[in-house]
Write a structure and sequence with these properties.
Blueprint lengths: L2 E9 L2 E2 L17 E5 L2 H8 L8 H12 L2 E4 L3 E2 L2 H21 L17 H9 L10 H20 L2 H8 L2 E6 L17 H13 L3 E2 L1 H9 L9 E7 L3 H9 L6 E4 L7 E2 L5 E2 L3 H10 L2 E4 L12 H18 L6 E3 L7 H10 L3 E3 L18 E2 L6 H10 L5 H19 L2
Parallel strand pairs: 1-4, 1-5, 6-8, 6-15, 7-8, 8-9, 9-12, 13-14
Antiparallel strand pairs: 1-2, 1-3, 10-11
Helix pairs in contact: 1-2, 3-5, 4-5, 7-13, 9-10, 11-12
Length: about 425
C-alpha cells in the first residue's frame, strides 16, 4: 500500500496542535499539514479541482484519508514563532476558497472546526490579535496564538456570509424525564415540570431562537446559518411524562426521540417507565414538536450485527416517517453509543442528522452524524442552565460539584423524619 507522509510546521517546541476542547470523532488533521510527500499520481489526483494555496495540502490529505490511503508523519518544517504565525494566518486566509472548491470536505477541515474549541477560546478568537495575557505563555500560549492567527486569516479571506456560516452555531439541550419524581437511580434523568417551565421562560426572556428540527437540518445541509442564540430542545426515550410536558411547550419546537417498538409500552432500560403512545406523540407534533428515531428497541447499536443494526435503524426511521411524513429524518443513538459502522448505517438508512451525548455546540462544520448535546439536570440552577444554553458545555467542575452537593442536602432534608 502506498504511504503519504504529512509534513507539519514545527515551532520552537515542535509541531503546534489545534486548540481542541471537544475532540470530534470526525474532524481535521492535527496538526495541520504544511505539505505532503508520496506517490505523485496519488497526490495529483487528490489535488484535482483545488486552488494552489497554503491550505491545499490539508484538503488533499483529507481526500486521501477518505480513500483509505495510509497517512504517516513526515519530517516537520521548522519555523520560528513569527514565521509560524504568518504561515498559519496564510492558511486561514486561503481556507474559505479551498472549502468552497470542495464543500463536502468541510467537516474534516480546520476551517470547519470552530465549534471544536471551548466557548472561552471562541471568545478569544473574536477579540483578534495574537498577543494577549489571556493567551498564556509557553507551548499552550503558542497554540492559542496560532489558533487566533488562523481564524483572523479566515475572517480576512471569507465573505461575510461565509464567516457567519462558519462561526454561527447552536446548542442542543438534552432531557429525558420531566416528572420531578426523582426515583433512586433517575436523579440525573428527571426534572421537575416547574423547573422546565422556568427554563423555557428564561430562554424566551433572553431571546433565544427555537431552532427546531427543520432549522437544524438546514444548517447541516448548507442552506443557512442558524439565527443568533439558537437552541434545539431534544429529549430521548419518549417517556410519557416528557411527551406530555413537551406538548405543552410546542412553541419551543422540541424534538422527541422515540424507541418506536416501545411506543405505548414500557421502558425496560429505565425501570419500566411508561412510554408515550402514538396518539400522544401525534398530539406533540400537532402542538409544534417533532419526532425523531431512537432505534426500535433502544438497543446498544455498536453491539448489533449488521442485519440487526439495519433493521433497528431503517425500521425506526420508517416508523417515524409514517407518522410524520416530510419531516427531517433525525436520529439519536441510544445510550449515546455509536462508532464508524453505526454512523455509516445511519447514513445508509436515510438519517440526515444523528445526535450523541458528547457535549459541545454545533455548527456547519460539525459532522451531522456526530452532533453534540448538553444534558440538563435537576440540580442546575437558572444561571447554570443559561451557561449551558449559551455555550453548549457542561459546567466547570467546581460549579457542578457545588450544585450537586446542594441538591444532595435538599434531598436529605426531605427524606429526614
Amino acid at each position: 500500500m502506498s504511504i503519504v507522509r504529512l509534513h507539519p510546521v514545527a515551532g520552537p517546541r515542535g509541531p503546534v496542535p489545534l486548540a481542541v476542547a471537544h475532540a470530534p470523532l470526525v474532524g481535521p488533521l492535527d496538526p495541520t499539514p504544511y505539505s505532503l510527500s508520496g506517490d505523485p499520481s496519488l497526490l495529483a489526483r487528490a489535488r484535482e479541482g483545488l486552488p494552489d494555496t497554503p491550505a491545499t495540502a490539508e484538503a488533499m490529505a483529507v481526500r486521501l484519508r477518505r480513500e483509505g490511503v495510509e497517512l504517516a508523519p513526515g519530517e516537520p518544517v521548522a519555523m520560528d514563532t513569527r514565521a509560524l504565525l504568518r504561515w498559519t494566518a496564510a492558511v486561514g486566509r486561503a481556507a474559505p476558497a479551498v472549502a468552497a472548491a470542495a464543500p463536502d470536505l468541510l467537516t474534516e477541515l480546520r476551517v470547519g472546526s470552530w465549534f471544536n474549541a471551548s466557548a472561552r477560546v471562541r471568545a478569544l478568537r473574536r477579540l483578534g490579535g495574537t498577543r494577549s495575557p489571556a493567551l498564556g505563555v509557553g507551548a499552550a500560549g503558542l497554540r492559542l496564538r496560532a489558533d487566533r492567527a488562523f481564524w483572523a486569516g479566515v475572517r480576512e479571506g471569507a465573505t461575510s456570509d461565509e464567516w457567519e456560516r462558519l462561526t454561527r452555531g447552536y446548542t442542543v439541550l438534552l432531557y429525558h424525564r420531566i416528572a420531578g419524581e426523582m426515583k433512586p437511580g433517575q436523579e440525573r434523568l428527571d426534572l421537575p415540570p416547574a423547573q422546565f417551565r422556568r427554563q423555557l421562560a428564561v430562554l424566551r426572556r433572553l431571546r433565544f431562537h427555537a431552532l427546531g428540527a427543520a432549522g437544524a437540518a438546514a444548517v447541516h445541509a448548507g442552506v443557512a446559518p442558524p439565527p443568533r442564540r439558537s437552541v434545539l430542545l431534544t429529549a430521548d426515550d419518549a417517556f410519557l411524562d416528557c411527551a406530555l410536558e413537551l406538548t405543552r411547550a410546542g412553541a419551543a419546537l422540541p424534538v422527541l426521540f422515540v424507541p418506536t417498538a416501545h411506543a405505548g409500552g414500557a421502558a425496560d432500560w429505565a425501570g419500566g417507565e411508561p412510554v408515550a403512545d402514538w396518539p400522544q406523540l401525534d398530539r406533540l407534533r400537532a402542538a409544534g414538536g417533532e419526532l425523531g428515531a431512537h432505534s426500535r428497541t433502544h438497543a446498544s447499536l455498536p453491539d448489533l450485527d449488521d442485519a440487526t443494526l439495519d433493521r433497528e435503524l431503517r425500521g425506526s426511521l420508517a416508523d417515524i416517517a409514517a407518522r410524520a411524513p416530510g419531516a427531517p429524518a433525525l436520529l439519536a443513538y441510544p445510550h449515546g453509543r455509536h462508532d464508524p459502522r453505526v454512523r455509516a448505517a445511519a447514513r445508509a438508512a436515510g438519517a440526515v442528522a444523528a445526535f450523541g451525548t458528547r457535549v459541545g455546540a454545533n455548527g456547519a462544520g460539525t459532522d451531522p452524524w456526530c452532533l453534540r448535546r448538553v444534558g440538563v439536570k435537576a440540580h442546575d440552577s437558572l444561571p447554570a442552565f443559561v451557561f449551558k444554553a449559551f455555550t453548549g458545555e457542561d459546567l466547570p467542575g467546581p460549579w457542578e460539584r457545588r450544585l450537586r452537593r446542594r441538591a444532595e442536602r435538599r434531598r436529605g432534608r426531605r427524606s429526614s423524619p
